[in-house]
Amino acid sequence: MPPFRFAIIVSTMSYTVPSIEPAEIVSGDFLTWKISNSTYPANLYTLSYRLVGSAGVQTVTASADGNDHLVEVAGDSSVGPPAVVGTDAWVAGFYTWTKFATEIATSRRITLGTGKLTVLANPATQTATDTRTHARKVLDAIEAVLEGTASKEQSEQSIDGKSLKRRSIEELLALRTYYKAEVAAEEAAAAAANGTTIGGRFLMRL
Predict the structure, then answer these.
(1) Among 138, 136, 53, which residue's Cα sits nearest to residue 97?
(2) Please, what's the b/e burial string for 67-78 (b: 16 or more CB within 10 A of its CB; e: otherwise)?
(3) Starting at the edge strand that comes first in sequence, how are the strands of the sheet with 24-26 ordered?
(4) What is the rounded CA–CA span in Å between residue 194 and residue 190?
């Protein structure tokens, strides 16, 4: 019997650092992007961001990568210096960021732009919670009332000031049709964002 031979497969895939600020991140994820600006090169200016939201305030400072500005934020605060806050400490919510260039020689600051950032909750630290959308909760309540299995909370669910338990069968059926369409639209949007269809086929983004 010939000897077994093991093949080692080395991935040749490379990661390209984004050249723009992210619009959405997940708390706990490593975060990076690179900014090139010939007017404010890294040998003459430092680049920083101030993120302000109802959930908190964060400051991010880029490091020099040649004349470019490289932003890197660890996902875990415990792996970096004590003064560095990882994204695991960023509270989920909506933030507005402002980008500054500060001249190294004079400390003169220039505002370069603003934008929006959504921080999603860290799935690794989340506890049990109801993640259903409002439309899905209402649809589930309507169907439970129709089937006679509704909880007190579901039967007292109010739509336009009238609880489900006080609605006729015809009204409930009409509401079910409406909220089924709402849920279908939400699921289609979520599937498209993930690159798949409801049936599980992958969509190619060009």
Answers:
(1) 53
(2) ebbbbbbbbebe
(3) 24-26, 109-120, 93-103, 45-53, 56-61
(4) 6
Spatial CB neighbours of 68, under 8 Å, sequence gap ≥ 6: 34, 35, 36, 42
Structure tokens that stand for 61 in this block: 């400072």
pLDDT band at residue 2 using 50, 70 and 90 as cut-offs: low
Contacts of 73 (CB under 8 A, 6+ apart): 30, 31, 32, 60, 84, 86, 87
What are the CA-CA distances from residue 28 to residues 18, 95, 173, 193 (Å)? Answer: 18, 16, 43, 21
Q: Please give the CATH number for the structural domain made up of 24-120.
A: 2.60.40.10
pTM over 0.85: no
Tokens for 122, please give them. 């860290």
127-135: average pLDDT: 82
Compute the distance between CA of residue 185 and CA of residue 192 in angstroms, rounded to an integer.
11
* Amino acid letter, 125: T
Both tokens assigned to 151:
């909880």
- Selection from 30, 100, 115, 25 nearest residue 69 by Cα: 100
pLDDT digits (tens, 9 = 90+) for 17-66: 999 999 999 999 999 999 999 999 999 999 999 999 987 899 999 999 99
Q: End-to-end alpha-carbon separation of the chain, Å?
A: 50
